[in-house]
Amino acid sequence: MKIKDYSPDGAQSARALFSQFENAGFQASELYKAAEIMKDMGKDRQCTRFLAFTANMAASGLRGIFADMLRRKMFDAVVTTGGAIDHDLIRSFSDYEHGDFQLDDVALHKKGVNRLGNILVDNKNYIALEKRLQPLFKKIHSQKNIISGRELISEIAKGVSDKNSFLYWSKKNSIPIFSPGLVDSAIGLQLFFYKQDHPDFVLDEAGDMKELANMVLSAKRTGALILGGGISKHYTIASNLLRGGLDYSVYITTASAYDGSLSGAFPREAKSWGKIKEKGSTSVVYGDATILLPLLYSSII
Fold first, then answer.
1. pLDDT band at residue 11 under the 50/70/90 scheme
2. Is 83 left (phi over 0), alpha (psi -120 to 50) or beta?
3. Do 176 and 170 meet the contact criterion of CB atoms below 8 Å apart?
4. How far is 109 from 234, CA to CA, in rounded Å?
5. N or C end of the chain: smaller count of CB under 10 Å?
6. Which CATH superfamily includes the segment(s) 8-94+128-300?
7. Can you name the residues that pair with 53 across neighbouring β-strands?
8. How far is the C-alpha of 70 from the C-alpha of 165, rounded, in Å?
9. What pLDDT score was predicted for residue 9?
10. End-to-end alpha carbon distance in the chain
11. Distances from the Cα of 63 to the Cαs of 56, 89, 194, 223, 267, in angstroms?
12. Other C-beta atoms lying within 10 Å of the C-beta of residue 132
């Protein structure tokens, strides 16, 4: 296959531009390959599909794509961090501001503003979050003493009416959201506060594993779109160890493999663990998901 030059005439739309990626080389060609795997995964009616992403992405404009993916029922389950639930919930009732990577962070701290890259999150949002979560914990606690992370996220989603929210569409379309690191979030902090006076209220962090395991073990085939690394990536691929690995996997990442980290590990390393099948279809695309995912998504919807 020959390398072909981009044609300016083919850049009139994202879809038209994407069609030229196949023969462009480097990450453009890898992104095209990723799209082909996503299409195969989407056509496979016997494939249980997972979407995994990190918290920072939910603070960005990607939140709208996640919501649309769940609206279209493109995935059967979501695996993400507690912070992603924080951001999605907060943005359902408030706005984040666009800042700059070079802002004075000490000055921001004095103003009660938190910087996430070039996104600004005011502390007042977390005060509003507390006012929503504490009554919810009390309501849940009046009915039960133990709740799993997936169940808690489902209860939180019931109070969301914003159609740009992935929590909203998870509730609407009965798509479970698993968050193995839920305690490491503003929600976890509020839960800690609540437990000071109600120590018998327990978040069962292992409670989701049976439900997730049943999804994996009952699947004919499985596939995943994994954005970023860390706990979201590992919980997704590790759960598929139970069935001998994923059949399809697409990674979008900025992490490298040289330090042995899970975040930067290639799919072939996951094959050594049985987290991806030996003959599984895989692609790794390097770059910022806020750029790459919209391009990828434009080619598969």
1. confident
2. alpha
3. yes
4. 33
5. N
6. Deoxyhypusine synthase (3.40.910.10)
7. 80
8. 10
9. 78
10. 26
11. 10, 11, 28, 21, 25
12. 16
Here the tokens at position 11 are 């850049």
Looking at the predicted structure, is the pLDDT value of residue 134 above 80? yes
HEC-encoded secondary structure of 78-117? EEECHHHHHHHHHHCCCCCEECCCCCCHHHHHHHCEEEEC
Read off the tokens for 100.
């700059």
> H helices of the chain, where?
14-18, 26-43, 55-59, 62-71, 82-91, 105-111, 124-141, 149-157, 166-172, 186-197, 208-217, 230-239, 267-273, 289-300
Q: Amino acid letter at 48?
A: T
Q: What type of residue sits at position 162?
A: D
DSSP helix/strand/coil, 241: helix
Say which amino acid occupies 290: T
**Total residue length of the chain:** 301
Please name the residue that has the structure tokens 């987290």: 275
Query: Residues near 274 by Cβ (< 8 Å), separated by ≥ 6?
Result: 241, 244, 245
User: Distance between CA 23 and CA 69 in Å, rounded?
Assistant: 27
Location of structure tokens 């990828």: 296
Catalytic site residues?
Answer: 275
Residue of 295, 300, 288 whose CA lies nearest to 54: 288
pLDDT at 191 over 80: yes
8 Å CB contact between 230 and 238? no
Average pLDDT over residues 269-276: 98
Asked whether the predicted pLDDT for residue 195 surpasses 80, the reply is: yes
User: What gap in Å lies between CA 294 and CA 69, rounded to an integer?
Assistant: 11
Helical packing angle, 82-91 and 186-197, nearest 10°: 100
Give the tokens for residue 47: 């494939």
